[in-house]
Amino acid sequence: MKVLSKQRNSKMCFICGMDNPIGFRAPYYNMEDGSCISPFEFKEIHQSFPQRVHGGLIGTILDEMACRAYWVDGNYITGVTTSMEVKYRKPTPYNVPLLGRGVVTLDRSRMFKTHAEIIDKCGTVYAEAEVTYL
């Protein structure tokens, strides 16, 4: 799959901030299939129990991934999350390269829905979410 363009990052955002020392520093790319992807890695400081990432942080990156999916078409509108259903499929490890992927599933004039997931290089799904935004 081909990368069409890179989305912008901020400096201190916990998710995409390149200058945030404890954040994820996640870059986001618009893909030719209409999805958005982000290679990233959780660190040991993001853990809950040993060897697994805190569920709240998993939900946080899924929420960002889902919103970024809406930006693929150049609609740099910030949505407000109205609902998010997260399914934790497997304990998510830290210090392992992961990939976030988001895609818009419904687009209406004032509301959109997206699907986001966290996978590894083998395609194992660690968590996924259905997110609704206004």
Cross-sheet strand order for the largest sheet = 1-2-3-5-6-7-4
What sort of overall outline do the alpha carbons produce when their principal axes are compared?
globular
- Estimated helix fraction: 10-25%
| Number of contiguous helices | 1
In angstroms, what separates the terminal alpha carbons?
30 Å
Biggest β-sheet description: 7 strands, antiparallel
- Tally of DSSP β-strands: 7
Q: Indicate the radius of gyration in whole angstroms.
A: 14 Å
Unreliable stretches covering 5 or more consecutive residues: none
Estimate the mean pLDDT confidence.
Answer: 92
Secondary-structure-derived class = mainly beta
Strand content: 35-45%
Secondary-structure element string: EEEHEEEE
Write a structural description:
The protein has one helix and seven strands. It is mainly beta and 134 residues long. A seven-stranded antiparallel sheet has the order 1-2-3-5-6-7-4, covered by helices on one side. The mean pLDDT is 92.
Question: Which helices and strands occur, and which strands form pairs?
Answer:
Layout: E1 3-6, E2 29-31, E3 36-40, H1 55-70, E4 81-88, E5 98-107, E6 112-119, E7 125-133
Antiparallel strand pairs: 1-2, 2-3, 3-5, 4-7, 5-6, 6-7
